[in-house]
Amino acid sequence: MSALIRHSVSVSGRPDGPPIVFVHGFGCDKNMWRHVAPAFEAEHRVVLMDLMGAGGSDLATYDPERYSTLEGYAADVTEVVRELDLRDAVLVGHSVSAMLVAMTQLAEPERVKALVMVAPSPRYTDTADYTGGFAEEDIDELLESLGSNYLGWSAAMAPAIMGNAERPELGEELTETFCRMDPAIARRFATATFRSDSRDLLPRISAPTLVLQCTNDVIAPISVGEYVAEQVPAGSLVLLEATGHCPNLSAPTQTTAAIDSFVRGLDVVPA
Question: Where in the numbering of this chain does the AB hydrolase-1 domain appear (predicted)?
Answer without folding.
Answer: 20-258
